[in-house]
Amino acid sequence: CKCSHAGDSAVGKTALTQMFCSDGAHFQKNYTLTTGVELLVKTVSVPETSDSVELFIFDSAGKELFSEMMEKLWEQPNALCIIYDVTNEQSFSNCAKWLERLRARTLGMHLPGVLVGNKTDLIGRRAVEQKRAEEWAEIQGLQYCETSVKEMENVEVPFHILANSFHQLYREKVETFHSLV
Amino acid sequence: MFLIIQPKLSERMKSTDLCLSSEGTEVILATSSDEKYPPENIIDGSSETFWTTTGMFPQEFIINFHKCVKISKLTIQCYLVRSLRIEKSLSKDPVDFEECVEKDLQYTEGALQTEEFSLPEFQATYLRFIIKSAFDHFVSVHTVMAEGLVDNI
């Protein structure tokens, strides 16, 4: 499962990915590409099945994500993860832009996606209410969760959401394959 | 049922499907492996069984005839494949593949894609199918048929 991460700089994309991938991974495979982009691979098991989903997460700085060099890498992503900082209104409003740019690469396919509000530990500084973000996510067909990488809260949740959604898509597609003959 | 092909008489023999596990053909590599939908389903002679890819492209599988065969027509039945490349090798080992054909397939809503490639007769011991891109996250490959003759034993 090729997972596109997007979001403004400093919202915690790298921190979230690193925290998730380094926590108890049995077969952690990290590659630092010469381009300054990191590919992280982690296997997530799907509850109530014997299957697991291998996530290929490309992590890069927000501004590099759509450079010419990255274009090729991002053909046909399987899942979207958009991250914003709950203390930063601008990072939330930019999510629409990130989503549009990611969806432009999906060739009309349905992609599971999750919107992640990070930095919930900064309670007094929250600028984006959870309800508002949830409503926007729902309209956009994204699932929603909030995390605090600093407090190690919910860091696995967005990845499990994506893995489960992707697995569900696979099961539906296999049903279609059966119905063809 | 077993069909026995006599080498010297091959020109007069009716051609047969060489892509059958019952003929000794094997799939020796496949880049996806859901054990419920294994690549062996491609060469079991049935369109009802299939191999699935489980995410990301390109994906490929390699068919080993275990002998040199002469092929005049290839047929693949699949679903949601967008860009397909077929390569052949005449080597003893699965190396030195050369392009046979590359094609963009049509999207067929709710029906199998059946793609026939009528090619100038060629020899091969291996065929490699590369699914370069697709119309969805996953594709299925139901059968591959290679019409032709066993060249020598």
Automatic annotation (TrEMBL), chain A:
GO biological processes: cell differentiation; intracellular protein transport; intraciliary transport; spermatogenesis
Name of protein: Intraflagellar transport protein 27 homolog
Family: Belongs to the small GTPase superfamily. Rab family.
NCBIfam families linked to this entry: small_GTP
One Pfam family recorded for the sequence: Ras
Annotated compartments: Cell projection, Cilium, Flagellum; Cytoplasm
Molecular-function GO terms, alphabetical: GTP binding; GTPase activity
Key words, A-Z: Cell projection, Cilium, Cytoplasm, Differentiation, Flagellum, GTP-binding, Nucleotide-binding, Protein transport, Spermatogenesis, Transport
Gene3D superfamilies: P-loop containing nucleotide triphosphate hydrolases (3.40.50.300)
Its job: Small GTPase-like component of the intraflagellar transport (IFT) complex B that promotes the exit of the BBSome complex from cilia via its interaction with ARL6. Not involved in entry of the BBSome complex into cilium. Prevents aggregation of GTP-free ARL6. Required for hedgehog signaling. Forms a subcomplex within the IFT complex B with IFT25. Its role in intraflagellar transport is mainly seen in tissues rich in ciliated cells such as kidney and testis. Essential for male fertility, spermiogenesis and sperm flagella formation. Plays a role in the early development of the kidney.
InterPro entries: P-loop_NTPase (IPR027417), Small_GTP-bd (IPR005225), Small_GTPase (IPR001806)
An example Gene Ontology CC term for this record: intraciliary transport particle B
Automatic annotation (TrEMBL), chain B:
GO biological process assignments: heart development; intraciliary transport; kidney development; left/right axis specification; lung development; skeletal system development; smoothened signaling pathway; spermatogenesis
Annotated F5/8 type C domain residues: 30-135
Entry annotated with the keyword Lipid metabolism: no
Localisation: Cell projection, Cilium
Keywords: Calcium, Cell projection, Cilium, Metal-binding
Highest taxon of the lineage: Eukaryota
Gene Ontology molecular-function annotations: metal ion binding
Transmembrane regions listed in the UniProt entry: none
InterPro entries reported in the protein's UniProt record: FA58C, Galactose-bd-like_sf, IFT25
The keyword Calcium is assigned to this record: yes
Record GO cellular component, one term: centrosome
Subunit structure, as described in the record: Component of the IFT complex B, at least composed of IFT20, IFT22, IFT25, IFT27, IFT46, IFT52, TRAF3IP1/IFT54, IFT57, IFT74, IFT80, IFT81, and IFT88. Interacts with IFT27. Interacts with IFT88.
PANTHER family (alphabetical): INTRAFLAGELLAR TRANSPORT PROTEIN 25 HOMOLOG (PTHR33906:SF1)
Function comment: Component of the IFT complex B required for sonic hedgehog/SHH signaling. May mediate transport of SHH components: required for the export of SMO and PTCH1 receptors out of the cilium and the accumulation of GLI2 at the ciliary tip in response to activation of the SHH pathway, suggesting it is involved in the dynamic transport of SHH signaling molecules within the cilium. Not required for ciliary assembly. Its role in intraflagellar transport is mainly seen in tissues rich in ciliated cells such as kidney and testis. Essential for male fertility, spermiogenesis and sperm flagella formation.
Family according to the record: Belongs to the IFT25 family.
UniProt protein name: Intraflagellar transport protein 25 homolog
Taxonomic lineage from the root: Eukaryota, Metazoa, Chordata, Craniata, Vertebrata
Gene name per UniProt: IFT25
